[in-house]
C-alpha cells in the first residue's frame, strides 16, 4: 500500500486502535460461531451494526486496515475439526440471476457461444435450487468410501462417517457394470418439518440456542465431531451432479445422468424437468415459485443447466462457475401478520434489541412468531407500532424481518412505541450514547442478561486474575445461583462452609476437593490486594480498557480519590469533570460512559459490596524520584502515531516514571515525543526550541 496522501486521512489514536482491535476480535468471534459452528449468537442486525462500526472506523482511519481485518476476509477459515479432502474435480458454484431478463440474457449468451441459429432451441434441465449444503460422495466399485463438504471448492472437509449416517445415502450402488470410481454430488438438507421438530426437541432439553433455519440446522448437524449426533438428526439429500468418474461411458445429457443417479439408488428431485427453450424455462420458474410455499424443504431458486453434455463441454467455465448453468434466485417470501407486541431483548453486552412478537404465521413453510426489529432507529424509520399489520419476510438464512407496516390497516388507537428507560431484565437505567444506535443497559454488574459475561471479564487475566474461575465454572456457579455478582465470588467460601449448605462445591460435578481449595486460595489472595488499575478495568465500564484504566489509576492514585472524583464528575459543569477530560486520552465519550456507570446505583452497590467483603484495593504506585528517571516531574507531550505501542500505553509508562502528560505544547513542555505524521505540535515544539524525542529515543530514556 502506498501512503503518499496522508493529509486527509486522520491517524488513529491508541484508544481508537484498541477499539478497532476489540471490534475485529468480536467480529472474528461471531464469524466463527456463524461459519464454523453454525450457531450464531447475535442477530444479523447486531452483527451488521458491528460491521457498520468497523466500516466507519476504517473509512475514517484507513491505516487501521491490515490483511487480518475482517473487512479483508470472507467467512472464516475452515475448521480444523475435520481433515481436508482435495476434490479431484473442483466443486463449482453458480452464477446468480434475479429476474427473467437475466435468464433470457443467459440463454442469449449460450446460444451465441454455440453459434446456434434461430431455428435451434437449447434445452435446459430445470432443477429446484435446494437450500442446503453441497456434498460429494465417493464410491469405489460401487461401495461408499468417502464423503466431503464443498469447502472452498478445491479443498473440503472429510465428513465420511457423518454422511454415512444419512439413510438417503446409498452405501452400495445398485446395478451392474458400476464405474471403478465415482463421485456423486448433491445437496444435504433438512426438511422443514424435521427442522421444527428438532428445534422443539432442543428447546425441551433446555437448549438455549436453537437453529435459525433449516439450512443452519443441516450444516450444524452434518458437521458434528460425533457422527452419533448426526445420526440422531433427520437429514435428507438429493443428488444432481457428478465429480470424478472412471470406468463408465460418458452421459449424453443431464437428464440421462439424473436417470442413472436414480437407478444407482440416489434420491433425485421429482420436480426436475427438461425445459424446451427459454419460454419453457420461464414457465418452469413460475410453476416452481407457485409450488414453493407448499414444499417441505426450502428452495431459494431454480437452476438451469444446458441439457446436452456436448454443449456443456464446449461451453466450459468462467472463473469458478460453469458457463452452461445459471441459478435464478427467488425473492424472499413475504407474508402479512399482526405485530402483537414489541419486546426488548437484552444481549450479553447489555444491548437492548427490540423484537416483534407476531401472531404466528407460516412463512417459507416455517412457523414464525418473532422477528428482529434491529434497533430504535430502524423502528422509528419504519414507524412500527404494537397492533400494526405488517409484512414480514424470511430471506434465506436471515432471521425474519419486518419489511413494512400496512398503514391503511393501522388501528385508530395506535400509538408510537415508547422505549423503556429501564432495563426490562434488571431495572437498571438505560442509556443511548452519542454516536451509537443501540440502547444499553447500564447494570452490567448485576443484570442477569449480562452477568456471566461481566463475571468472566471481572476475573480475567488483566482484571482480578482469579485462576480456576473459567467460563464453564462461572456458568455452573451462576446457574446454581451461587454467584450472581462479583461480590458473591468473595462470599462463596463462607457460604460453602456454612452449616446446612445443601450441596457443597466439592461434591458438585467438575469440582473436587483440591480444585475447590485452590479456587478459594486464589480468591482470597485477590481479596488481600488488587491493584487499582485492575479494579477499575474489572468493572467493565464500556470503553475503559486496560490502558485507560491505568491512566485513571495513575491520575487519581487511590480508589477513594477515584470514586469521589467520579461522583463529582457526574455534573459536566464541575471541576471534577474538567479534570477528568483533561487527562490526555480521556475524551467526552468515555467520560459519558463513566457517568452512565456511576449514576446507576446498582453499580455503586457492587463497589461498596466488594469493599464490605474485605477486598483491598491497592493505591496506584505513585512514582518516586529514584534519581534515574529523566522524566520525573517533567511535562511530556505526545504527537503523531507511535509504532511500537499505543498512545495510552506510552502515556501510562511516562506517568509511571513520574512524568506529567499534557495535551498541548507550550513553553512549559519539557519533552515532545514525535511519532509518524506529526503535525502542528511538532512545528510548534521546534519553534519553541523544545527537546524533541523520537519514539526510539523515548523508549531508550524510559
Ligand atoms: S449444480 C456445476 N444443482 O447451489 C454447478 N447446485 O449456488 C454445481 N444447489 O453449491 C451446482 N441445488 O450447493 C446445482 N440442483 C442443483 C442445486 C445446486 C442447490 C446449490 C449447491 C451449489 C450452489 C450454487
TrEMBL record:
<dbReference type="InterPro" id="IPR010994">
    <property type="entry name" value="RuvA_2-like"/>
</dbReference>
<keyword id="KW-0235">DNA replication</keyword>
<protein>
    <recommendedName>
        <fullName>DNA ligase</fullName>
        <ecNumber>6.5.1.2</ecNumber>
    </recommendedName>
</protein>
<dbReference type="Pfam" id="PF03120">
    <property type="entry name" value="OB_DNA_ligase"/>
</dbReference>
<comment type="function">
    <text>DNA ligase that catalyzes the formation of phosphodiester linkages between 5'-phosphoryl and 3'-hydroxyl groups in double-stranded DNA using NAD as a coenzyme and as the energy source for the reaction. It is essential for DNA replication and repair of damaged DNA.</text>
</comment>
<dbReference type="GO" id="GO:0006260">
    <property type="term" value="P:DNA replication"/>
</dbReference>
<dbReference type="GO" id="GO:0006281">
    <property type="term" value="P:DNA repair"/>
</dbReference>
<dbReference type="InterPro" id="IPR013839">
    <property type="entry name" value="DNAligase_adenylation"/>
</dbReference>
<dbReference type="Pfam" id="PF03119">
    <property type="entry name" value="DNA_ligase_ZBD"/>
</dbReference>
<dbReference type="InterPro" id="IPR013840">
    <property type="entry name" value="DNAligase_N"/>
</dbReference>
<feature type="binding site">
    <location>
        <begin position="93"/>
        <end position="94"/>
    </location>
    <ligand>
        <name>NAD(+)</name>
    </ligand>
</feature>
<feature type="binding site">
    <location>
        <position position="305"/>
    </location>
    <ligand>
        <name>NAD(+)</name>
    </ligand>
</feature>
<feature type="domain" description="BRCT">
    <location>
        <begin position="626"/>
        <end position="702"/>
    </location>
</feature>
<keyword id="KW-0227">DNA damage</keyword>
<keyword id="KW-0436">Ligase</keyword>
<dbReference type="InterPro" id="IPR001357">
    <property type="entry name" value="BRCT_dom"/>
</dbReference>
<feature type="binding site">
    <location>
        <position position="423"/>
    </location>
    <ligand>
        <name>Zn(2+)</name>
    </ligand>
</feature>
<feature type="binding site">
    <location>
        <position position="127"/>
    </location>
    <ligand>
        <name>NAD(+)</name>
    </ligand>
</feature>
<dbReference type="InterPro" id="IPR041663">
    <property type="entry name" value="DisA/LigA_HHH"/>
</dbReference>
<dbReference type="Pfam" id="PF01653">
    <property type="entry name" value="DNA_ligase_aden"/>
</dbReference>
<dbReference type="GO" id="GO:0003677">
    <property type="term" value="F:DNA binding"/>
</dbReference>
<feature type="binding site">
    <location>
        <position position="329"/>
    </location>
    <ligand>
        <name>NAD(+)</name>
    </ligand>
</feature>
<dbReference type="InterPro" id="IPR001679">
    <property type="entry name" value="DNA_ligase"/>
</dbReference>
<dbReference type="InterPro" id="IPR004149">
    <property type="entry name" value="Znf_DNAligase_C4"/>
</dbReference>
<keyword id="KW-0234">DNA repair</keyword>
<feature type="binding site">
    <location>
        <position position="426"/>
    </location>
    <ligand>
        <name>Zn(2+)</name>
    </ligand>
</feature>
<dbReference type="GO" id="GO:0005829">
    <property type="term" value="C:cytosol"/>
</dbReference>
<keyword id="KW-0479">Metal-binding</keyword>
<keyword id="KW-0862">Zinc</keyword>
<comment type="similarity">
    <text>Belongs to the NAD-dependent DNA ligase family. LigA subfamily.</text>
</comment>
<keyword id="KW-0460">Magnesium</keyword>
<dbReference type="Pfam" id="PF12826">
    <property type="entry name" value="HHH_2"/>
</dbReference>
<feature type="binding site">
    <location>
        <position position="187"/>
    </location>
    <ligand>
        <name>NAD(+)</name>
    </ligand>
</feature>
<dbReference type="InterPro" id="IPR004150">
    <property type="entry name" value="NAD_DNA_ligase_OB"/>
</dbReference>
<feature type="binding site">
    <location>
        <position position="150"/>
    </location>
    <ligand>
        <name>NAD(+)</name>
    </ligand>
</feature>
<dbReference type="InterPro" id="IPR003583">
    <property type="entry name" value="Hlx-hairpin-Hlx_DNA-bd_motif"/>
</dbReference>
<dbReference type="GO" id="GO:0003911">
    <property type="term" value="F:DNA ligase (NAD+) activity"/>
</dbReference>
<feature type="binding site">
    <location>
        <position position="447"/>
    </location>
    <ligand>
        <name>Zn(2+)</name>
    </ligand>
</feature>
<dbReference type="InterPro" id="IPR033136">
    <property type="entry name" value="DNA_ligase_CS"/>
</dbReference>
<keyword id="KW-0520">NAD</keyword>
<dbReference type="Pfam" id="PF00533">
    <property type="entry name" value="BRCT"/>
</dbReference>
<dbReference type="GO" id="GO:0046872">
    <property type="term" value="F:metal ion binding"/>
</dbReference>
